[in-house]
Specification:
2 domains; transcription; HTH-type_TetR-like_transc_reg; MT1864/Rv1816-like_C; Arc Repressor Mutant, subunit A; about 230 residues; mainly alpha; 11 helices; Tet_transcr_reg_TetR-rel_C_sf
């Protein structure tokens, strides 16, 4: 009989998922302590007391494992940012929450975040990316997360909150770049919010302040005064 409810996972599937999660968790720990160069299937097998051949049943290569680490970060980011962007709240609150949620997601698991941006693309990889269509890009977890920012800019323009002259994709890139930069600063410099002249500021206060500054930069420009001082 057909059912709208998903079938309960079998014990075999649950075991497989558990092992897969253990492999990813160990890979993240290893990446955290030694970086990408210190991660290998052999050492990973020793870490979780499995044979290398057992790990290859889940991941065909180290590169495939790294890609999974990256994708799983963007899937988590997508889930959290999508949740705040779709919430039934004031637009300004949702817009700021997209930035604060991004930074919170990145800093909660800093080494996983580092893994998501660990590799420098080769010229061949860059060539492939440049020829990737928009539809193919937004079908990926990374692309879907970025599309939320594009939609946010377009919504702000439709509401008359953001400058209509902004190009939505470029504006979304700027939001991402500022969020990414702050996340990395807070990962590598945890005392950033405590430095003078505001040594008692919390992480949350500082990130919220940053989000507000970013959104103000996208706002409709104030009408310039006339030369005689009147409007």
């Amino acid at each position: 009989m057909d059912s709208d409810y998903p079938l309960e996972q079998t014990p075999a599937v649950r075991r497989r998922n558990k092992v897969r999660e253990a492999i990813l968790a160990a890979a993240e720990r290893m990446f955290a302590s030694e970086g990408e160069s210190g991660l290998s299937i052999r050492r990973l097998a020793e870490e979780i007391d499995y044979s290398p051949s057992a790990i290859y049943k889940y991941f065909g290569s180290k590169e495939e494992l790294l890609e999974e680490l990256k994708d799983s970060f963007f899937e988590r980011l997508l889930d959290r940012v999508d949740g705040v962007s779709a919430a039934n709240k004031d637009f300004h609150d949702r817009a700021r929450a997209c930035v604060t949620t991004y930074v919170a997601t990145a800093t909660a698991r800093p080494h996983h975040y580092a893994a998501a941006f660990s590799s420098v693309p080769t010229p061949e990889e860059l060539a492939v990316r440049r020829h990737l269509s928009w539809d193919d890009f937004i079908a990926t977890p990374k692309g879907q997360a970025f599309k939320i920012l594009v939609d946010l800019v377009e919504e702000g323009q439709a509401l008359g909150v953001f400058d209509p002259a902004l190009e939505p994709v470029k504006a979304a890139k700027s939001i991402w770049a500022s969020s990414h930069g702050l996340a990395l600063l807070m990962i590598h410099m945890p005392i950033l919010p405590d430095v003078q002249p505001c040594p008692t500021q919390t992480d949350g206060d500082f990130v919220a302040y940053h989000a507000d500054i970013v959104m103000r930069g996208l706002a409709v420009p104030a009408e310039p005064p006339h030369k005689n001082g009147t409007r």
